[in-house]
User: Fold this.
Amino acid sequence: MTEETPKTESAAPRPEPACLCAGIGTTITTLLQTLAPPEAAGEHFRRARVEMLKGLRELLDHRIETLSKTPETHGTKLTVE
Assistant:
């Protein structure tokens, strides 16, 4: 029984890509820039997010204030004879 050694091809080595994305990164970047909303719309959405967060802050502040109040009912005074 004789062992055969695997034949190695003498093809030129493939060039390694510069990044893990194999060069598709620039294509994806261009696509995302094409699909991005106009600057004015982006600014509007940013302001809307800020206003939403301010609304949440108001709700939290109100809830904290409600929970922090001490109950004012101490009971009823009775005179004992």
Observations:
- The chain has a mean pLDDT of 82.
- The helical segments are 25-35, 39-68.
- The chain is about 50% helix and 0% strand.
- The two ends are 119 Å apart (CA to CA).
